[in-house]
Amino acid sequence: MKHLIPFALCLANAATAHAATIAMEDQSQLSAAPAKAEHSEWFQPPHEKDLPNDGFGQLVREGRAIFVDTRNQASEYVGNGMNCTNCHLDQGRKANSAPLWGAYTMYPAYRKKNDKVNSFAERIQGCFQFSMNGTAPAVDSHIINAITAYSYWLATGAPVGKTLPGRLYPVVQEPAGGYDLARGEQVYQQQCAVCHGDNGEGQKVGKDYVLPPLWGKDSYNWGAGMHRINTAAGFILHNMPLGKGGTLSDADAWHVAAYMNSHERPQDPRLIDGSIEKTRDKYHADDGVNLYGKVINGVMLGQGVD
């Protein structure tokens, strides 16, 4: 089964020696979320206007601010131009965009990626290391506490340990003939370049990105979940072009996801002995469909950019 781990969410901590010896059911590789029942709505998180004017409400508001403006609000931990909300749309509220209300209630959970049971705080740490190409704030830091409080609040009323419809990036069937990078480039230029630039560079106003870069030094690194073509295809199909999710075909979502991830980006911070091949064998060979360590247009991907 293809791994469905929301974009941006990978762990910063290494597995302990003890954890590596324990055979556990992989709770993170859950079955795909059930389809939304006809005429029903996705889970609805609370509204900010309903937050109390007390210490808890303040912490939640601070968590939201960090989530939507991570590059500035947590700058010491971010190494690129990304914000959490770039991959978890509508401030972490949007169904089929790995919403926070669908994630918070599913932890603690075992993750194959680091072979240990992860807390929700550890999961957030991974976002900073991989999706933000930065460093992980301490588990007991204000940043982690604030984002956790925001996630907890968005999940108000959600059942604990139940896979809700819309909680992940949905599975998109790979085209029968596989992905086509040339077709992906066509789709990108027709549908994506207007927002993300002809060369995936994103768009800035001043020093801040208003539309995120999709590859290059300011994008997510080779360890982020979005580097998997199957994960990116699910996100793209249901959410892109922005405001027009569901307008691409399944095949074109795969093609453009492959094209996006056929470009160089920051190195996987788990690089082993400076070797792309060793790193691919350990971390990427069984991690969905990805191009890390593959030769594209005569160049091996995974060398990284600074």
From TrEMBL:
Domain of life: Bacteria
Record keywords, A-Z: Heme, Iron, Metal-binding, Signal
InterPro entries referenced in this protein's UniProt entry, alphabetically: Cyt_c-like_dom, Cyt_c-like_dom_sf, Cytochrome_c-type_DH
Start and end residues of each Cytochrome c domain: 179-264
Signal peptide span: 1-19
Coiled coil: none
GO MF terms held by the record: electron transfer activity; heme binding; metal ion binding
Protein name: Thiosulfate dehydrogenase
Species for this entry: Ectopseudomonas toyotomiensis
Phylogenetic lineage: Bacteria, Pseudomonadati, Pseudomonadota, Gammaproteobacteria, Pseudomonadales
